Fold:
Amino acid sequence: MTFILLKHVHVSCAVISFALFFLRGIWSFNGSPIMQQGWVKVVPHAVDTLLLASALTMAFIIQQYPLMDAWLTAKFFGLLLYIILGSVALKYGKTKTTRIAAWLAAQVVFAYIVLVATHHNPLPLIH
Ligand code: HEM
Structure:
């Protein structure tokens, strides 16, 4: 029961995290004033914290851990890459081209993480 609930929280946070990242990219590239609103700076971090907390609790319950089990290792480093690309896209990228390229690459990495999650396999499309 707890696990199912955690998984719902985890997947919901993943969907919201992706939607907010996607929108923040568009708002940022268009110079939208929405980016200056307080909630835009707070809500994504709260959602991502919940995403990670639910992930770690589930990993503990099923006794499978990043750096020990290949699929969770892939998710862990995937998440790290997603965070780095996301910060280049929304903050550190020097030119608009760099920021858009990082924003697109982050979305590819996100899709990879979802495929790893659903296949429990670090190479989800290779059988
Ligand atoms: C952007 C980051 C992440 C995304 C998009 C994501 C996505 C998902 C999705 C879609 C599922 C459900 C898979 C299914 O249908 O069974 C899932 C399950 C899970 N994720 Fe994540 N995840 C992320 C990060 C992480 C991280 C970093 C960890 C590791 C600590 C993790 C641990 C787990 C675990 C343990 C499950 C449950 C698997 C099971 O049912 O046995 N996730 N994740």
